[in-house]
Design brief:
Length: about 160
Amino acid sequence: MPEAPLPAIRSLPSWLLGRAAARGRALVADALAAEGLRMWHHVVLSAVRDLAPVAQADLGRSVGLDPKDVVGILNDLQSADLVERAPDPRDRRKNSVTLTDAGARLLARCEKAAREANDELLAPLSAAERERFMDLLARISGVSGVPGGSGDSTADR
């Protein structure tokens, strides 16, 4: 079934960004699924690697997840031997989370798969266009420090 014309809607940057984001999420989700992982599991594994050892509550805040959701994701990751939870040596009332060797290996594969999915998403663009696109996305999203984009809101004005 063909899509409705809706030219007024389809000309909105927000609509186009939403479509691109949905396509990007689908490509990455499929790539991660091939490794047996879901998107939020990948995010949490990556955060554990970057922050470890990290208190479970701090982990949830760092990725913007509700504490109940963090517990469920960590339960999944721990049962797959991808993370370890142990009492935090600084505060025994808290759990400290670290990546296992198996978790580090899976994360490396998932990061490669996610990069390849993003390469597929941006395939229609030249290398220079990709760099410019990343810069523009960083500027309009208000995110700084994005690799491949300066995130400098004053650049090229």
